[in-house]
Amino acid sequence: MTKAARSVASPRVVSIEDFRPIAQRRIPQSVFDYLDGGAEGEVTLRENCRVFEDITFRPRHAVAVPACALCTRVLGFDLALPFLLAPVGYSRLMHPGGEVAAARAAGAAGTAYILSTISGHRLEDVKSGSSGPVFYQLYLMGGRGAAEAVIERARVAGFSALVVTIDTPVSGIRERDYRNGMKELISGSPLQKIQFLPQVLSRPGWLTAFLRDGGLPSLPNVVIPGKGPMPLVDINAALAESAVTWADLRWIRELWRGPIVVKGVLTGDDGRRAVDEGAAAISVSNHGGRQLDCVPSSLRALPEVVSAVNGQVEILMDGGIRRGTDIVKAICLGARAVLCGRAYAYGLAAAGEAGVTRAIEILRTDLERSLRLLGCSSVAALDRSYVNVPKSWESN
Ligand code: GLV
Which of 3.20.20.70, 1.10.1380.10, 2.30.42.10, 3.20.20.140 is the CATH number of 3-393? Predict the structure, then answer.
């Protein structure tokens, strides 16, 4: 076992939550809070996790479950696990391995990885690093010219789907990022950076690895025609340039012939609209509680979208997944699979690829154990009969 793998082995890391303090000690506060934090009062961020407590199980006991099938199919791809790794911006700041490490761990586990536009590694390197399917999450940063170029590169590199995020007309205010000087550290002058440097200097291990990796990366997948790769920008500037309308989606569909996942749907109306606009799948998502605060948790929004879409496309969901039981609950409420973001990103920040592998392994063993305890032999057989849903949820 490598040193990194040992650092996140049991008993130090038994659950996803155990990665958090290790990540917090390894990376600067600004990077940790970017990963850990949400918008405004973080009401939705907290509710995304808490809401899973509202759903309880209805196990079938005294049933022999000699083997559990965890596999599923998403957009025609056979996945060994009913979860994919969600797009996570700035992954290369969490660990130099960044997106390549996460994609490699996903592929080795038999699942898909979704690469964020706000990524520090070239999409070609991420794709060739993984043995599994890789999807590209598209923001319109850098304008349509940059989007056209990246869509073509993704096609040539063999990406399997585009994930278009629709909930970022501007960035939500992530107050922790302001307090930590995220903007100044990323794009400020040396003078503006000074007051925020102690938190970076207090993480010498991270700092050494960061400097060896070349310091602040550019955005190699946002190449502006005639100008080259965009420099790394702070998240507010990045997302303010990222508004996607249904008209943009139509334009994207002309360029990308493969499947498109529309991510950021929270209502039945938007779900139906996404289907009408040609989405092959939808991710019910509030962007991990990072955009508009006080929207419902993703799990709470899921039944309305499932019922409105009525089986026309596959429904994914993301937000708040920390345990295998969370994944089981989302599938019982109609999700085909879920996307995990922070659950693996804490692992990445704690120990690079070994941390991502460990996070996936925790969720995999959780899933297997939970299915056996439920008396259910496959993810495909999960449905509402395995859960109690609060009365107040029952209109959908
Ligand atoms: C990027 O998409 C972010 O939410 O930080």
Answer: 3.20.20.70
